[in-house]
């Protein structure tokens, strides 16, 4: 082969180096095809050389090795880790020809790093850790001979990667040490993107040890750092944030997050591995929410991609999720095919241990549940004996499932006491997890993780017919969010800045609409800033220690002449536990589904009946339908309790769809004071709370209200000294200042429920939104809040009867009473109801009494409820 002139060779080598740099950049940005094209072109250039000059030859050889190393890693994304490892094995032979000892050390470090990554992605975690150890030895050696930013960056990447491997091995201390050092080094040398990578990995570590708020905080920090470097965000960040939300039981929010990630990856033709991972997590989120068809489809798609890619661990995870879906379908149908049990056990027995010990344990627990359903209790016991006790890093949902298996087996063996002991222990474990959660959504979401245990407990106790015991278990299993004491507010400047931006953008949108200008870009930025504020709320809670669950004697002592009715269901059986006087009684009320259907239809009829100017004929038809549903609910839910509650005022603790019942609409409860509470524990905490107010009445009118609803001056006339706020002066800041320490806060404003985070449900004021968390964060929240012009009462009911919405956020934040409608209310009807309500309040009537009298005037058009205590 003819010798090429040195300058020409140097130019070709430089071009190949630039192609390598561009290929690495394309690969890191997820542009897989572009990376392959660039790297192949670089290899073609270097393969056409054979320099004789020693220095040129050394540079040529180093460039070939770097190109081939990166190309092996990139090809592994398509053809699997085995192909990449084969490519690296060939590259390792080339290093022997490098004569410069420092360059040889540097190249070995790069190759070992890539070997570690491929092994890590293939699930060979211990082998990966050994490769990273070797890479770090070479890199530390090279760095000792002379420091530079590129060398430091490669060291940071390997520390971050080894920290990730240690995390997966459960070596928590070593993982935190590696990742913290990576963050420190990257920050010191201005490598902000690498610092974000390592901080992201620390979030994964926090999640691994069960600290969900800390993980979400890390992800938020990483996202800000990434955005500071450019607009693109790593797909893994969205994936890991979704994982954290699922760990807190927020499967709906996780699904929304993952849908967004999938959309981006598909549009950018993302790598099969990333797509498969996101599909698998999306399947998990669907499984948690009971959407088994979606879960099955996503798990199947992920399994096929992972099988092509060659990651055995990934394939096992996808197969396991498919088996979980199959088990859920079988249990729903009340049958447990022997063939399904056989497939599950064969899968578990075929998994390599200890590498996939968690997956094997989970599979065996599925088999235990099916064997119990089949009645083969000896087989169930034998399989359960092979499930190890949970360790420190065992996910909480796995711990709950093991408790459920033990409880269901105990029930089948006739050991009811043993079953309840298992359930009690499981719910205690879950309580410890809940105590670490940071925001209202995270607190409430954890109920999903213990839902099966809670339902089994209620079923068991209900079968025994012991009303006091059932009352105790209901309090232990429902609406735990409201047990937590409020802590003094700690201002979060970043969150305050985001909220200020949202308010400013809301005004900009309004101005653009007024001027006839486009609003698409403004709305997109508004939505983005709102999402950021929502995410900050996931880890910025202010909850203190949990109050103890109350017992029947404490409730009786506080009730006095009132009665408490706690509704519950088991399967399709609806019951009420009635606490009145010194007695606790159980009343069976028939079909839960029938009551739920009537509640939904009543709500729909009241919505249809709400408009002020409804044609008389239509209003008559809708009123007849609404009365029919109200009568049905009254006959099923209230009249069977008449002998126990008499004419007492009521405290109602609903369940499920019964949260949508406006109780004052039911004939037997007309003009009877009643309050709705998420649990007896929550009611008692609110009823015992001190006032902490200065007696002020604050009446607020937001923009864009109909004249009738906005007549706060008319309401103010009932109180004499009420502060009236409307128009431009009624800004969020001014309203908040006025409400701090107020006795009554009447808020007549349009509102929006925020499904991702109830604390960010909001009312519209003159300068933009006022958020529920701002009201709940006041040092002295208003004792009573009236939400007059919006449906922001109990907008969403999570598992465990955890109601979420603007009103529930206020109650959790310390307000004692919230008055709000459960369905639409006509403008005139709302104005008239509020006029009657404030007239009674001004004469000294308690809120529940004043509201009962106001509703009784026209129940079907005044579907307000009194929440909390009254």
From TrEMBL:
<dbReference type="InterPro" id="IPR024983">
    <property type="entry name" value="CHAT_dom"/>
</dbReference>
<protein>
    <recommendedName>
        <fullName>CHAT domain-containing protein</fullName>
    </recommendedName>
</protein>
<dbReference type="InterPro" id="IPR011990">
    <property type="entry name" value="TPR-like_helical_dom_sf"/>
</dbReference>
<feature type="domain" description="CHAT">
    <location>
        <begin position="628"/>
        <end position="854"/>
    </location>
</feature>
<dbReference type="Pfam" id="PF12770">
    <property type="entry name" value="CHAT"/>
</dbReference>
